[in-house]
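ZP: hey, is the acetyl coenzyme *A complex queued? I don't see it on the tracker
AM: it wasn't, my bad. submitting now with these inputs:
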Amino acid sequence: MNGSVDATPAGYAVTNWISRVAGCGSALPERRLTNQELATTVDTSDEWIAQRTGIKERRIAAQGENTSDLAIAASMAALRQAGIRGPDVDLVVLATCTPDRTMPATAVRVQAALGMTGGIAFDVQAVCSGFVFALSMADNMIRLGQARTAVVIGAETMSRIIDWNDRNSCVLFGDGAGAVVLRAERRTGDQPRGVLSTHLHSDGRHQDKIHTDGGTSSTQTAGKMHLEGREVFLHAVVNLAQASQEALTANGMTKDDLDWVVPHQANQRIVQTLGEKLQLPKEKVVLTVDHHGNTSAASIPLALAEGVADGRIKENDLVLTPAMGSGFTWGSALIRW
Ligand code: ACO
């Protein structure tokens, strides 16, 4: 699998191999929690939530329904679409901040459920940017010949780390999972299909702006989430725009080349502001936050799966996936579907 390495696009090693997207899938818990229902338990209203965030409802995992259950269902759906059997997968990278257990990684539970008896499986923790980080890890391994067929998953049960009495945060999040299958393909032609480049960033100076008040090492609990919404909002808009532009510049492209932007779904206003900054028509931006809420690492693959299922995202479309999350972490991937 090894081949020569060129250094384009900027800072991104291009080899003989490219990670082609072979399929995607998603899974959502059955239970819908509407704004109206939330307003019966915490001091908020449908109007406030809808106007400030665009969210109307979110899904909440049932008791006993864990992150791995959603991840397995999403992975199986993605493999079905790709026409690939579980045992033929040799890499599982799962992004989550809500793992089933502190150890082992939730990814190995997925690996076993897919019937894999070999290969590599591990978790990635970059919160709401997790899917883009996981995609980048899998893509790097495929391009460098360490894997041939990868399942990349974003899966979360955010409902388990929410303080349901905190109206500042509990209205924002939901549960779900999305997955894509990547397959190593020989890179051919001027416009190869697959992951064109990924771009990742972190800045730990902002680690307290979205955080849990616990963890295995410090409190021996998962803790509950706290966030400084306005601060996050301001950084999110800047970082998402920067990561988007970075991907375009690295590939010598402009926003006019894009068919779809599928951003992390934190808040409709953040997504709209990003669209305005990139000067994109809003029809080119896939928005799911209204019915999913913010599902952290799951939000981009959930939105990708929805865009593919309803026929918007088609073969050869150029898709940009900017993400931003706690840490702060942020980044983007540019994919020719
Ligand atoms: N219902 C009613 N009122 C509320 C609610 C609520 N659910 N939440 C806050 N308020 C009140 C506040 O208490 C405040 O009242 P006050 O003026 O009397 O003090 C008022 O509404 C305004 O609060 P702000 O925080 O200034 O409201 P803002 O317009 O900034 O919207 C929001 C808040 C929606 C959280 C927004 O800042 C946001 O979307 N931030 C980014 C999203 C985010 O933090 N995501 C976390 C994950 S990270 C990521 O995904 C990128």
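AM: back. The two ends are 23 Å apart (CA to CA).
ZP: great, adding it to the tracker
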